[in-house]
Amino acid sequence: MLRAPAPFRIEDLALLGNTRSAALVRPDGAINWACMPDFDSPAVFASMLGGEEHGFWRVGPAVYDGSPPPAADRRQYLGDTIVLRQEWDTDTGTLAITDFMPAPTVTDDAEPQIIRIVECVSGVVRVASVFRPRTDYGATLPTIQRFNHGTPRLSATTYPHSYWLDGPSHTVNRDGVCRADLSLHAHQSVTLSLTWKPSNRPAPIPPDAFAELDATVEYWDQWARGCTYRGPYRDAVVRSALTLKAMCHPGGGIVAAPTTSLPEQLGGERQWDYRFVWLRDSALTIAALVRLGQLEEARRWRSWLIDTVTPVRLQPIYRLNGDTDLDEEVLDHLDGYEGSRPVRTGNGAAGQLQVDVFGELADTLLLAEDAGLPADPQVDALLLALTAQVELRWREPDEGIWEIRGAARHFTHSKVMCWVAVDRTLRLLERRPDADPAVLVRLAELREEIHHDVCAHGVDERGVFTQYYGGEDLDASLLLISQVGFLPADDKRVIATTQAIQHHLTEYGLVLRYATREEPGANVDGLAGHEGAFLACSFWLAEGLAAIGHHGQATGLFDRILALRSGLGLLAEEYDPLAQRQLGNYPQAFSHWALADAAVRLWPRAARFHPPRPRAAVEQAAPAAVVA
After folding, report:
1. CA gyration radius for the chain?
2. How far apart are CA 109 and CA 87, in angstroms?
3. What distance in Å separates the CA atoms of residue 552 and residue 537, rounded to the nearest whole number?
4. Across 403-519, where does the E strand assignment appear?
5. Quick check: 612 pLDDT over 80?
6. Which uninterrupted H or E stretch holds 312?
7. Do β-strands 161-166 and 14-17 pair in parallel, antiparallel, or remain unpaired?
8. Is residue 614 over pLDDT 60?
9. Distance, CA of 219 to CA of 32 (rounded, Å)
10. Which residues have C-beta within 8 Å of that of residue 313, sequence separation ≥ 6?
11. N or C end of the chain: smaller count of CB under 10 Å?
12. Is the C-alpha dihedral spanning 214, 220, 223, 227 positive or negative?
């Protein structure tokens, strides 16, 4: 009989990845989330969002007395890699398991695999492998077949997917639960592997686990050596960079997170699918990697943009292959993480208008060229087309950076990023000897018009930038105003906004995206309930405090946020300071690029690449009450 899994926190999970797909591993050795062959493929193990009946694969010390499987006593990534090693001290000996997904190959169509190397370090240890595949997010019992010609193996098939398990011989019961029990003596080892294959293709060749391990360690270690940051927090920055790299698909798209429906409020409705390419998130991820000296991901991302994006029909979110179909669906058969429903796939925000996206794209495209990517006429054409859309749409209300599900508004941050889009395009075109002077004049006038509009309508009587025109609420995205060069850090409005957010938009010293209230209909986002502190915004406040001269507070806040990371250095999207646990999809690119950016900006001499800082605009006609 299968036992109920022991409770686990989101931050207890370890990431395995190969830049194309991902899996999550609990401390008890259970993989409770895995999507193959791609990040957005249906999960074959989905017990993270339900029960063990929805799929898992546990390898660890065998348990026979009805107690839950024990958690590992030690767990770590091997150096600067995404190769996980967990160790258990049992009554009879010590067991170590090394889990990884083999490194990407030159070809993008290599079959993704999960390899588990089991070793008895000392004594004698009884080991169990319990394999319960459930395809379609745990909804379907696949057809399971055993093969014992030579190496024992199993296949679990639901068209068009098949999953091949190689290793010790497993029994299979009527519920499709597969189990292997074995004893290992000191220095003995056994390997298991799970390989995805299209169901209409021949069976895969079992991998050479130790050769794959060596190649994977070398792949990640070599990539990490390319990170140019040499500051006091190098270990944290490199771990964040590795996590971001794991979300960069070989085709150029970058997912926001490898999971869906991990809640932003336990028991609430704030569950979303993040396994897609947000143009904003991908641009910010690339910008962080560029600042760390990594350019190959920027090259792939830039090519993906050129091939995918049509500015006149711009979506904020795309699938990895560039498809635009992201219809949102609810998986009713899953109860959700700790009862947080609904569990969603797809994302309805793909149909929103988020005009800030123009700015993030333009900013990162200019940054990539500053860092060394060659000029490309297709990039110039894309930026001009994006800026033409800004010219047409910047005065429209939108759903903004937080993609609210309430009424569209004139969000101040969105207008600022429209200014960024025009500014960066203008600066890039000024480098081109054949640029049309009339275009340059028009863009300069548009940039000035947007800047004046924001300063006239986005600031209240306190001299504080507000979430949207005519409103009174704060928004953490306004901390970016000086970072993007819209105003200098010593501008009174920037200082007032930073201090207002520090004092009025924080819980226990951590920053909220915006105020949320429990009352139905009271929230600007159109959703019920409260959410946790937003980790990226907390890093933004650290940067903002440093920019206005409060360096001690900035470094203190940065240190505090670092202490919230998991034992493996990973961050979800949010943090609940009362429950003292992470919330939201995990690991979250938004949190990790914000960590890396904060480290680079707080210790700029530690980064070898210093891109030109944006020129702070000088607003010519601000009302006296605003600048006073």
Report:
1. 25
2. 33
3. 18
4. 506-507, 510-511
5. no
6. none
7. unpaired
8. no
9. 26
10. none
11. N
12. negative
Long-range contacts of the stretch 404-409 (C-beta < 8 A, 24+): 404/524, 404/525, 404/526, 405/348, 405/349, 405/525, 405/526, 405/527, 406/523, 406/524, 406/525, 406/526, 406/527, 407/526, 408/353, 409/467, 409/468, 409/469, 409/471, 409/524
**Residue 356 identity:** D
Q: In angstroms, rounded to a whole number, what is the distance separating the alpha carbons of residues 239 and 494?
A: 32
pLDDT in tens, 231-242: 999 999 999 999
**Against a cut of 0.90, is the pTM above it?**
yes
pLDDT at 25 over 90: yes
Over the stretch 208-224, which tens digit does the pLDDT of each residue have?
A: 999 999 999 999 999 99
**Locus of tokens 């001299």:** 463
Tokens standing for residue 146 = 């055993």
**293 neighbors 228 (Cβ within 8 angstroms):** yes
Mapped onto helix, strand or coil, the DSSP state of residue 288 is: helix
Average pLDDT score, the chain: 93
**Cβ atoms within 10 Å, residue 135:** 24
Buried b vs exposed e over 179-209: b needs ≥16 C-beta within 10 Å? bbebebeeeeebbbbbbbbeeeeeebebbeb
Question: In terms of residues, how long is the chain?
Answer: 628
DSSP helix/strand/coil, 328: coil
- Residue 613 pLDDT: 53
The secondary structure element, H or E, covering residue 124 is strand 113-132
Percentage of the chain with pLDDT > 90? Answer: 89
Amino acid code (one letter) for 189: S
Cβ count within 10 A of residue 134: 24
Q: How far apart are CA 154 and CA 170, in angstroms?
A: 8
How would you write 332-376 as a 3-class SS string? CCCCCHHHCCCCEECCHHHHCCCCHHHHHHHHHHHHHHHHCCCCC
For residues 114 and 502, give the distance between their C-alpha atoms in angstroms, rounded to a whole number. 44
**Number of neighbours of residue 146 by Cβ within 10 angstroms:** 14
Residues 113/194, Cβ–Cβ less than 8 Å: yes
Candidates 503, 498, 500, 473; CA nearest to 488 is 498
Q: What is the DSSP string of 455-473?
A: HHHSB-TTS-B-SBTT---
**446: its two tokens:** 């548009």
**How many Å apart are CA 188 and CA 584, to the nearest integer?**
40
Q: What is the pLDDT of residues 455-464, one digit of tens each?
A: 999 999 999 9
Is the pLDDT at 127 greater than 90? The verdict is yes
